[in-house]
Design goal:
The complex is a heterodimer of chains A (377) and B (336). Chain A has 377 residues and is an alpha/beta fold. Chain A has ten helices and 15 strands. In chain A, the strands form three sheets. In chain A, strands 5-4-6-7-1-8-15-14-9-10-12 form an eleven-stranded mixed sheet, with helices on both faces. Chain A has a two-stranded antiparallel ribbon with strand order 2-3. Chain B has ten helices and ten strands. Chain B is globular and about 65 Å long. The chains are: A alpha/beta (377), B alpha/beta (336). At the A-B interface, helix 3, helix 4, strand 5, helix 5 and helix 6 of A face helix 3, helix 4, strand 3, helix 5 and helix 6 of B.
Chain lengths: 377, 336
């Protein structure tokens, strides 16, 4: 079985639509900005990849919720669904939920209700949606949500499902990351020998997934299969065995082999441990699979957009396949030795005939999800 | 388009509850939930939340680890060392919590304000992410299947049971440990505007045929689930109106408009009226209470509901007697 992607939307630091974000990735201009979200004096990290929509003199609650309703509305419109989503399940993947709003309530007394911590409240108000779910599944959350959306369609529970991801940076998350990274990164440089670690980004993405033949309009791409599992190994560090199982399971579900993959959207969080682990797994997976696929890592420009990052990578993969263009990894000059032989795109966009993409997303708790997406010609 | 269903198609695999565990002060057994609570006994956090394997973990994770351990033991899926004996790669973890890491989030803000980031503990990194509990449960019991955290408001617990069933019926897991947990602390008390309670409960779900073949004892069948706009729609979508009389209705105290004749004379139990606000733990605790009720041989199905007009949706879960406790005329879901 395959599932049609009939609507897409995204917002990030480098653009307010999938097209804008993709164009920025291809242009490859440095996108990090000095930390504005929080008092820079309290952190060692000086840069982030924020969406610059805060007022000059402080912060606003419910930014992640606002991006979410924006991308859900746009994706629904793109698929021709209209604004009444009373009968459409909406599955939201997130790392932080509205924890940033909880922080602002706790510290500043911002007007936030317990019911605002999950996204169903806003989705009900904006679209009348009731079959809504907030999955707090760390940085693989939106691909987990995609997998569960395909299950819903498979099981006959729905013909159309909206899948989304959203996250705003939290003080506690940004701060604890700052605390644990020994050598503070001044940019997110996945797979480059100079990589030091992860910096947070902000953003949201949404796609409309439909049973084949349900939609009446254009089909952007097809989901061939989504795997999801857990390392059960370490609370924050990745495990090559778990990631390998996730990749192989995704291929099995999609009915493809490694040699069929033309493009890999890497998780590429820029931490030495992630980059080495992901590289090592992919070298094994693609060993003997011919020239191997092109690979790119968008977090170099978007920062780590957390729960929505997997779906944002997927949306970029769809545009890459449509346009036959793979954006480069910003700042990648000297790949780490573990990545030797991988087709990382450096310097300028690479052109190619791309039919099948693999999208990686790994999160805290050792949870992995891998999606296989096919171009529609 | 249909947004909900009862998974009642002819090919749907029957999923049953085979284990229950709880870490709930004042409640010793799931059956206690249905009567007046003794108020004594049950889980003691002062002595029950210590031990080497619980060190450096947030309170919600510690509670969840205990409840999950009890449930796996109850299901006959743990050895004498408390290690999981089932299919590691095919066992899912589904955690329901809304406030599990709220204390960690708010305390980090306070620490940064007073001491900067160098005042933070590096050991606090896992609990910056809302899925910390599910991660620890998977690590402790080596559960490598799908690992899901549902933080979905008052319906979370029922949603978690519904999604665990989905994972099994979709073939992604052969078993699931579903945990509902909320911790007691001053942050949660401030958020709720009401005294917070330590509450953790876990249920083990398996396909009925798999449970039968390993000789496990099913306590209840998960028959229907829905999250929809109101109670009437939720009842219709779970199949509650077609599956026979409901003998017990586990409510969350929301208005009963839409219950109709089906539930007019049904015995109602509101677990929160005795235990206080349960938030993400509620639905899983309702599932445990329902399973205890059905396991006792009581007649009729059990309906659990949460949410309502003051919330973004109403969720309902329908539980029916397990295969061994059903009159043969009601046998269904068994494939030739």
């Amino acid at each position: 079985m395959t599932w049609d992607i009939t609507g897409m939307a995204a917002v990030a630091n480098i653009g307010a639509t999938p097209g804008e974000i993709f164009a920025a990735l291809c242009a490859g201009q440095e996108s990090r900005t000095p930390l504005k979200a929080f008092d820079p004096a309290k952190y060692r990290a000086a840069y982030a990849y924020e969406i610059d929509d805060r007022p000059e003199d402080g912060d606003l609650p419910l930014r992640a919720t606002r991006w979410l309703t924006t991308v859900v509305r746009q994706a629904a419109h793109d698929a021709g669904l209209g604004e009444d989503l009373a009968q459409v399940p909406v599955l939201v993947g997130t790392t932080m939920r509205e924890q940033r709003s909880l922080e602002l309530w706790w510290r500043d007394g911002a007007q936030v209700a317990l019911e605002d911590l999950h996204f169903g409240t806003a989705l009900k108000a904006a679209f009348g949606a009731c079959t809504t779910y907030t999955f707090a599944n760390a940085c693989s959350a939106s691909l987990y949500a995609l997998g569960m959306a395909t299950d819903m369609i498979d099981l006959g529970l729905a013909d159309t499902v909206i899948v989304a991801g959203t996250d705003a940076a939290t003080e506690g998350g940004f701060g604890t990351l700052d605390r644990v990274q020994n050598d503070i990164p001044d940019a997110l440089r996945p797979f480059d020998a100079t990589h030091k670690g992860m910096l947070m980004g902000e953003g949201a993405a949404a796609v409309v997934v439909q049973r084949t033949g349900t939609g009446t309009g254009r089909v952007h791409a097809r989901v061939r299969g989504v795997s999801m599992n857990c390392d059960a190994h370490h609370a924050t560090a990745p495990d090559p065995d778990g990631i390998t199982r996730a990749v192989r399971d995704a291929y099995a579900r999609a009915g493809v082999r490694a040699g069929d993959i033309d493009l890999v959207m890497l998780h590429g969080s820029g931490t030495p441990l992630n980059d080495e682990t992901e590289s090592g797994v992919l070298r094994q997976v693609f060993e003997g699979a011919g020239a191997g696929p092109r690979m790119t890592a968008i977090k170099a420009m978007t920062g780590h957009t957390m729960g929505g990052s997997g779906l944002l990578s997927l949306v970029m993969a769809v545009i890459a396949m449509k346009s036959g263009t793979v954006p480069p990894v910003l700042g990648l000059a000297n790949p780490i030795p573990e990545a030797a032989g991988l087709g990382l795109v450096q310097g300028r966009p690479a052109a190619g005939d791309l039919s099948l993409a693999q999208v990686d997303a790994f999160g805290f708790g050792g949870i992995n999800a891998v999606a296989i997406v096919e171009a529609v010609r | 388009m249909t947004a909900t269903s009862t998974w009642s198609g002819p090919d749907a695999r029957e999923v049953v509850v085979t284990g229950i565990g709880q870490a709930l002060p004042g409640v010793a057994t799931p059956g206690d939930l249905l009567g007046p609570l003794p108020g004594e006994g049950g889980f003691d956090p002062a002595t029950g939340l210590i031990g080497r394997e619980l060190r450096h973990k947030d309170r919600a994770s510690r509670l969840a680890l205990r409840a999950a351990g009890f449930a796996l033991h109850d299901a006959g899926l743990a050895d004498t060392d408390g290690m999981f004996t089932g299919a590691s790669g095919a066992t899912a973890v589904v955690v329901s919590t809304n406030l599990g890491n709220a204390d960690s989030v708010c305390e980090a803000v306070d620490t940064i304000a007073t001491a900067g980031v160098t005042g933070l503990s590096p050991l606090g990194l896992p609990q910056t992410s809302s899925n910390v509990i599910a991660g620890w449960v998977a690590i402790r019991y080596r559960l490598r299947g799908p690992n899901l955290t549902v933080s979905n408001g008052v319906t979370s617990g029922l949603d978690a049971v519904g999604w665990a069933r989905n994972l099994i019926v979709a073939g992604r897991a052969e078993a699931a440990v579903v945990v509902g947990v909320e911790p007691a602390n001053y942050v949660v008390t401030k958020i709720l505007g009401d005294q917070s309670t330590d509450a953790a409960v876990a249920v083990v779900l398996e396909p009925a045929d798999a449970a039968a073949s390993r000789g496990a004892r099913p306590r209840a069948t998960i028959t229907g689930y829905a999250r929809t706009r109101n109670l009437a729609e939720a009842l219709a979508s779970t199949g509650a109106t077609e599956e026979g009389p409901v003998g017990l209705w586990l409510t969350d105290g929301s208005e009963a408009a839409g219950a109709g004749r089906l539930l007019a004379a049904t015995r109602r139990v509101d677990l929160e009226s005795q235990l206080g606000p349960l938030s993400g733990a509620l639905g899983v605790l309702q599932c445990a209470a329902a399973a205890a009720h059905l396991d006792s041989g009581a007649t009729g199905n059990v309906l659990a509901t949460a949410g309502g007009p003051r919330h973004d949706a109403t969720a309902a879960l329908l539980l029916t007697p397990p295969p061994a406790l059903r009159p043969s005329t009601q046998e269904r879901g068994q494939q030739p």
